[in-house]
Design brief:
Blueprint (H helix, E strand, L loop, with lengths): L2 H17 L15 E2 L2 H18 L15 E12 L2 E13 L5 E10 L2 E25 L2 E3 L2 E23 L5 E10 L2 E9 L6 H13 L1 H11 L1 H16 L8 E2 L3
Parallel strand pairs: 1-10
Antiparallel strand pairs: 2-3, 3-5, 4-5, 5-6, 5-7, 7-8, 7-9
The chain binds 2-acetamido-2-deoxy-beta-D-glucopyranose (NAG).
Keywords: Signal
Protein name: Protein takeout
InterPro entries: Haemolymph_juvenile_hormone-bd, To_sf
């Protein structure tokens, strides 16, 4: 064996030693009161933890692999839309969502059946602002529209009841975690301001269209929310589950047995 070969092997060994992943870092439970496992009392306790953590993690935590979420950035999202005379596709890009940090969890109802968990989460957000670029390809009756431009949506007083289902599972390191499998939300909005440009080539027509949209946003929202569920549910589940990977539930729970 020549010396070059030995050096190479040594290098590989050193590399191996450093490439061994460090122990995964989890959310530190030490400062929180342990939540009772009894489901009636657990809800309040979980709500308190989330309300404490949300503002603190707004700039993200690289060690926990949690990205900053104020603003929360969405690279691209597409919605297929089809109802009566209107159908088409809208895609949004470079979306910035402000306001997640203002969520207050008011109450959580917990139901548990062995490893299956159901949570009903009541929350309130005073204001959400969503900015970005949009592009659409729509058919309204015989008319084809291809609007493209910037949008700015502001939602006020968002009251949500979120129903989620999840399951408890055990990781290789023996710790137990929660993973959500479904989520359903039907937020009620106090008021909404819609701003956009590029709907029509003519700015005056834009103005008229926006006036209509701002007067009828309740109807528009009522149709669009369920229609777009397929687009935002997976995104939301992925986000929440990514955070839950860092929450070893037993460290936040006091066992009553
Ligand atoms: C978006 O619209 C809201 C509500 O009208 C306004 O307060 C805010 O300044 C706008 N943001 C931008 C970046 O234009």
């Amino acid at each position: 064996m020549n010396s070059q070969c030995i050096v190479l092997i040594l290098c590989l060994l050193v590399y191996q030693a450093y490439a061994v992943p460090a122990e995964t870092k989890y959310l530190d439970a030490s400062e929180f009161e342990k939540c009772p496992e009894d489901t009636n009392a657990a809800g309040d306790c979980i709500a308190k933890i989330i309300n404490t953590l949300l503002p603190r993690l707004r700039h993200g935590d690289p060690e926990l692999n949690i990205p900053a979420y104020d603003p929360f950035l969405i690279d691209k999202l597409s919605f297929q839309y089809s109802s009566g005379a209107v159908n088409g596709r809208i895609s949004v890009r470079n979306v910035k969502l402000y306001g997640i940090v203002g969520i207050k969890i008011q109450k959580i109802d917990v139901k548990r059946n062995n490893n299956k968990i159901q949570l009903r989460i009541y929350s309130h957000q005073p204001k959400i602002n969503i900015l970005g670029d949009y592009k659409a390809d729509m058919h309204v009756n015989q008319l084809q529209l291809k609007p493209k431009g910037k949008f700015n949506l502001t939602l006020f007083d968002v009251q949500s009841t979120v129903n989620t289902e999840g399951e408890i599972y055990t990781k290789d390191d023996g710790k137990r975690f929660l993973r959500l499998t479904d989520i359903e939300a039907n937020p009620k909005i106090g008021d909404m301001i819609i701003k956009a440009n590029g709907i029509f080539p003519d700015p005056e027509l834009d103005e008229i269209a926006l006036n209509v949209a701002n007067n009828y946003w309740r109807d528009i929202y009522g149709i669009i929310l369920p229609e777009t569920r397929k687009s935002w549910v997976p995104l939301l589940l992925r986000l929440i589950n990514q955070a839950l990977l860092k929450v070893p539930i037993d460290e936040f729970t006091s066992r009553s047995d």
